[in-house]
Amino acid sequence: MTDEQQKNGDVDADRAEDTPIISVGGPDGAANRIAQLRVTLERTCGLCKQVERLVRARGFDPGARAALAELADHFDGTLASIAAGTGRVLRRLANLR
Fold first, then answer.
1. Residue 16, Cα to own-chain centre: how many angstroms?
2. Domain extents for the chain?
3. CB neighbours of 51 closer than 8 A, spacing ≥ 6?
4. Under a CB-based contact definition with an 8 Å cutoff, are residues 34 and 76 in contact?
5. Which CB contacts under 8 angstroms, 24+ apart, belong to 79-83?
6. DSSP line for 35-77
7. Is there a contact between 55 and 68 (Cβ–Cβ < 8 Å)?
8. More confident residue, 57 or 83
9. pTM of the full structure
């Protein structure tokens, strides 16, 4: 890669950083994204409460172990995919003009 290509690459990277990675449709779209995040987190909290109750009531019986595995899958799958970009998206929303 030449010096000029590197220089242009840096400019392109700066432009990409200034460009929102999502099209939110204005404040309503941003609010809808935040509402979706809230619903997902409320479901996660509900699932945590259920698993907590099971473990407190039954210890580590087969039902509680299955619930713990389901909760682990939720954190590894659903939340991992959400967490991967949520902070970045929220920062970009905060910087929209």
1. 21
2. 3-95
3. 64, 67, 68, 70, 71
4. no
5. 79/40, 79/44, 82/37, 82/40
6. HHHHHHHHHHHHHHHHHHHHHHHHTT-HHHHHHHHHHHHHIII
7. yes
8. 57
9. 0.63
